[in-house]
Design brief:
There is one protein chain. The protein is mainly alpha-helical and 593 residues long. The chain contains 25 helices and six strands. Strand 5 and strand 6 form a beta hairpin. Helix 10 packs parallel to helix 12 and helix 11 runs antiparallel to helix 12. The chain is globular, with a radius of gyration of 26 Å.
Length: 593
């Protein structure tokens, strides 16, 4: 039995002190998470979050990678590969990378997810989304632990704890934690990859690792890079910096280590890409069209809403988008990223210390090589983010799946904090309190946005307009199990309503008729996404003029066009919501006597 003196020593310097520190840190994190959720929690507002969640639910219920969110373009690719019937059968998902839905589906099998909303009372929070936020905040805690471990191995405990404090106080990361997106899962995988590279570099340079261990590590690094690619397809490009790292920083094995990393990457990615190609003839499904979206030829979300995106009789032919148009898109988006997003990388000005520190040499070779790896990842992600930017970046700025640069925030903050400490140690400070004041000011300024969020007025958790879970679920409940809806927010109808829903085709006359021939459209649900636009500039003279005329007649004149099969309108919520159906489904059925 330990003596009293040994116990005191343990709590001052030994395992007891470490346990107290980690208990205190965990308590602070949980308290901050509860405070943030009480003050700033918000239901999903990202279409891609709802899309991934409904695919995960289908997966958890044994329906495989299927979706209720039906993109017109996916109907075309499925029909090209498998023939007609893509709309009448269960619709396979061609838009989401699979790893995040797999993780969510596992949580849905374990946790008590309740998707039903009571009809008689107002509920402001959708319970499944709150549980997904808690899962993401658990991943955020893992990010902090991995960042501490990496910073501790590169610098010292002081820099490690300071880096974790900066991450913990970053409002943007907390916003991602409640977004329902896969960002924090990607951060966990990226930090694991960074730690693996540091370990491999040290083992290879110091000569302590044998060939088998180095090749196994390279293979595992490739697997992690593949897992990142299956989290978001654009992250697959990070395999290039990984291969460079092994080929040039562990040169004893020539190019073979980089090739081993490529093998590990291919083993993970190939089966899923083969599945997509077998279904649609495209390796990345509809997600592979991101580079062609938001171009002069396909502005906004028009490309995904085309029933025939390969129509060689018009200029709207996906195959005609050449390198010149994509280069023009890259040239338009890259300056914006360099001017606005790069200086505030990760949502904090601490990243500026990283950019300044690029010119400062390190004595520690591991630091220098990991920093170069980070810079290479930064270049790759800048190019992929600029080229893959779509309308989603405008729907919810900063907090969206197309924000790839935020993935580097933990490494950027570690290097930025290390640079701050290097400069800090050269300052001549007052002997009493000066050090603590400077550190305190550094942390308060870094956590300023989060402090204002927590100190401000609590905001409503409702992301309305346009997303009101109870209203959407009620509208969807008016349709039968195999009946079809068309809407301007099919991702929300799919998630909240469990209803097959086709995205509004770009051309209402041809598109609606073409869909209706394949499978009867029983309801049309328009929301503020379409109705709450500038009547002239965005509806009547915008990209979708036919939909503009339709909405203008319905909202302003309260007229349904002649020949349109959905003649019955539900007036509640008008003119911000318009629900048309083939019959008055909202009225209770009176049994015949």
């Amino acid at each position: 039995m330990p003596t009293l003196q040994e116990m005191i020593h343990s709590f001052e310097e030994g395992a007891g002190a470490r346990a107290v520190k980690w208990f205190g840190f965990t308590f602070v994190f949980v308290a901050l998470a509860v405070a943030y959720d009480l003050r700033a929690y918000r239901n999903f507002s990202n279409p891609e979050a709802m899309d991934a969640a409904q695919v995960a639910r289908n997966l958890s219920e044994g329906q495989g990678f299927t979706t209720h969110f039906i993109r017109p373009a996916s109907l075309h690719f499925l029909a090209q590969k498998s023939g007609p019937g893509a709309l009448t059968n269960t619709h396979p998902d061609l838009a989401n990378a699979p790893l995040w839905p797999v993780v969510l589906s596992g949580a849905m099998r374990v946790a008590p997810f309740d998707y039903r909303l009571p009809a008689g009372e107002t509920v402001r929070t959708f319970q499944p989304e709150l549980l997904i936020a808690i899962l993401n905040q658990g991943l955020f805690l893992v990010v902090l632990l991995l960042a501490w471990r990496l910073a501790r191995s590169l610098y010292d405990p002081f820099v490690a704890w300071l880096s974790v404090a900066v991450l913990l106080g970053t409002d943007l990361l907390w916003r991602f934690s409640i977004s329902g997106l896969s960002t924090l899962l990607g951060m966990v995988l990226f930090l694991l990859l960074a730690q693996l590279l540091v370990a491999a570099e040290r083992g290879g340079q110091e000569g302590g690792w044998g060939a088998a261990r180095l090749y196994l590590t390279a293979l595992l690094a490739g697997v992690l890079a593949g897992a990142l690619g299956l989290t978001r397809y654009a992250l697959a490009g990070l395999v290039l910096p990984v291969m460079f790292f092994f080929n040039f920083f562990i040169p004893t094995r020539g190019l073979s280590l980089g090739f081993a990393a490529l093998i590990g990457f291919s083993v993970v990615m190939t089966p899923w890409l083969a599945r997509n190609h077998a279904l649609s003839g495209r390796l990345f499904g509809t997600a592979g069209m991101a580079a062609q979206q938001a171009t002069d030829r396909f502005p906004g979300d028009r490309l995904e809403r085309l029933l025939n995106p390969e129509n060689d009789l018009t200029h709207e032919d996906l195959r005609q988008v050449g390198l010149g148009e994509m280069w023009s898109k890259l040239g338009d988006n890259l300056p914006t990223l360099l001017q606005s997003e790069l200086p505030r990388l990760g949502g904090s000005w601490v990243g500026a210390f990283f950019l300044v520190g690029v010119l400062v040499p390190f004595r520690n070779p591991s630091l220098s090589r990991l920093r170069l790896f980070t810079l290479m990842c930064l270049v790759v992600l800048l190019a992929f983010q600029a080229l893959g930017r779509t309308h989603l970046s405008k729907v919810v700025p900063d907090v969206n799946s197309e924000n790839l640069l935020v993935l580097l925030a933990p490494l950027i903050f570690i290097f930025g904090t290390g640079m701050f400490v290097l400069l800090f140690e050269q300052l001549e400070l007052p002997p009493f309190g000066g050090r603590g004041i400077v550190i305190g000011v550094f942390l308060v300024v870094a956590a300023g946005p989060l402090c204002f969020t927590l100190a401000g007025t609590p905001r409503s958790p409702m992301a309305y307009p346009p997303y009101h879970p109870q209203i959407i679920q009620e509208r969807a409940s008016w349709l039968g199990e195999r009946e079809l809806m068309m809407s301007d927010m099919p991702w929300a109808v799919a998630w909240y309503g469990r209803c097959d829903c086709v995205w509004l085709p770009s051309n209402v006359a041809e598109g609606f008729a073409a869909v209706n021939r394949q499978r009867p459209v029983n309801a049309l649900y328009l929301t503020a996404i379409t109705l709450d636009q500038r009547l002239v500039s965005e509806l009547l003279e915008g990209d979708d003029r036919v939909w503009g005329d339709f909405a203008a007649n319905a909202v302003v004149k309260r007229e349904i066009p002649d020949g349109f099969p959905l003649k019955f309108a539900f007036a509640e919520g008008f003119p911000y919501q318009l629900f048309l159906s083939d019959r008055e489904r909202w009225k209770p059925v009176v049994p015949k006597m």
